[in-house]
Amino acid sequence: MPGSLEQLDLGVQIPYHFRCPISLELMRDPVTVRTGQTYDRSSIESWVATGNTTCPVTRAPLTDFTLIPNHTLRRLIQDWCVANRSFGIERIPTPKQPADPALVRSLLNQASSISNPAQSRLSALRRLRGLFRDSDKNRSVISSLNAREILIEIVFSGTDSESLELNHEALALLVMFPLAESECESVVSNGDRVAFLSHLLFHSSIEVRVNSTALIEIVVAGTRSPELRAQVSNVDEIFEGVIEIMKNPIASYPRALKVGVKALFALCLVKQARQKVVSAGAAEILIDRLPDFEKCDAERALATVELLCRVPEGCAAFAAHALTVPLLVKIILKISDRATEYAAGALLSLCSATEQSQRDAVAAGVLTQLLLLVQSDCTDRAKRKAQLLLKLLRDSWPEDSIGNSDDFACSEIVIPSY
């Protein structure tokens, strides 16, 4: 359905009472407020969300913000759309109604009560998951009713055969929420809970494995305490499990690679974990899968590469992969400013570590890329890294290279903090 029918010049007039008084557009989900006026749900919700407490039409105070669906008007609008389909007007779909807080509270109670049969609890969790996916409004309602704390308890409530399906369903719902720091700490500070998540990383179900990886990323990234985050690095199986997740083919489960690289980056923020991440095979998987990442995930993957290049084991592992240097050179100025900065930082570490990496970078055309970079609108940090690289590679420049000229000076260089 076009946002504005007038723009299409279809020769059709929208009936006045089908228009929202706020947006003046055809209503898709008409709701009535206590004053008797009807508005499109998204418009009146935005009006209230910005702090307004009056009815937009009557200016009467709104002491009750309950929105009542106007089913009769919505059906009339749908009939009008059908009658005018020859003008290219599509019938508006019947909107799903927001979850009733009383229903959500009942489902949460049903799911959390250990006296209920397992199948009843499982059914409640699945219904909550469906409601959560339906709309932002539902997510807000569910979040406001202590759902996260309840789900955390269910996820780690027991590991017997009857409880496992409940654990997995609660986990699938929990990873849809942003968790508070206290909730993240309640997981990472408990060795049994961390061990349980690491065990799930090797489950036969790819969905369970990915959800476990997702929760590991959420709790590690959401915990500020270095000591608590470091506790996770004591569990070697976590690194192996996350790397295995990233090996999953995109065609069979696209979410695996995205979740895996997020978890890997979060783990690499813990300095003590980087050597273990390298030992688990991170260098090979990151370089091999780099072309498969979407923009945001590519940035995260490159940031992870740069972090791992800060440890000798990481530098050695990436330098040993024949595609590392050519790929990093190719990425400069291709994906985004951040990606360029991370790629330049990784190249700086690699070229500082081995002369072979320097020769590989020059052979891949890094000099031209770096000269373009320092003249671009990229970040200052990226430019400083490029300047350092140019100075480092000066002895490797071919005699006929523009880079061997004194026209480009690298005398005043500020070394970035590593």
- Strand segment tally: 3
Q: What is the C-alpha radius of gyration, as a whole number of Å?
A: 28 Å
- Number of alpha- plus pi-helical segments: 22
Q: Estimate the global geometry from the Cα principal axes.
A: globular
Order of helices and strands: EEHEHHHHHHHHHHHHHHHHHHHHH
Biggest sheet, spatial arrangement of strands: 2-1-3
- Let me know the largest β-sheet: 3 strands, antiparallel
Low-confidence stretches: 1-9, 401-418
Q: Quickly give the structural class.
A: mainly alpha
Strand percent estimate:
under 5%
Helix content: 55-70%
Quick check: average pLDDT? 87
Distance between the termini: 52 Å
Structural features, described:
- By secondary structure, the protein is mainly alpha-helical.
- Helix 4 packs parallel to helix 7, helix 13 packs parallel to helix 16 (about 295-310) and helix 19 runs parallel beside helix 22 (about 380-390).
- A hairpin with a 5-residue loop joins strand 1 and strand 2.
- The protein is globular, with a radius of gyration of 28 Å.
- Helices cover about 60% and strands about 0% of the residues.
- The longest helix is centred in the N-terminal third of the chain and has 17 residues, at about 120-135.
